Amino acid sequence: MRDIPLALCALNLALAAHSTEAHAADVAPLSLKTSGAVAGITVRIVDKDSYSVRLDYFYPPNDLTARQRLWEGAGGLRPDATGHTREPGAPFNVFLRIYDIDDAVVIQDRRINHPMLSSWGSGVLHAELSEVRLDPGRYQIMVERRGSAAGISDYRAGVSVVRAY
Asked: What is the pLDDT of residue 25?
């Protein structure tokens, strides 16, 4: 029990190190190697708007084999044996908490089962965890990953907050 306050202090220090304004994507690393991995990011919102909290999976931009392996491992859309398409989502679940630092209130506290890929770019696949309307202020976002990511555990992943479109 004595280790819990120390762990919370370490997490708060890690969160403070990942502080940013939400209009530029900053990524807090999230391990795919260990179930129970936690990522935290503190953002300062300047404009009242809708924001997307995303789980980002990274691969080498010109490596199509790595992209395909990551797409399949993250549960992207693909045909099944019957010719129908299916999108199982990630092989794990995540817990998301959004905390308004200035008002000292939890905005969201939820579980996302098998996050689905929602968009992609050069070298990155995104799974939107939540879209939330935020007022100007400071927010702490914490994501905990639960379950195995064995098929993609060698890839880098992270949590980002960007303006939703």
From this structure: 60
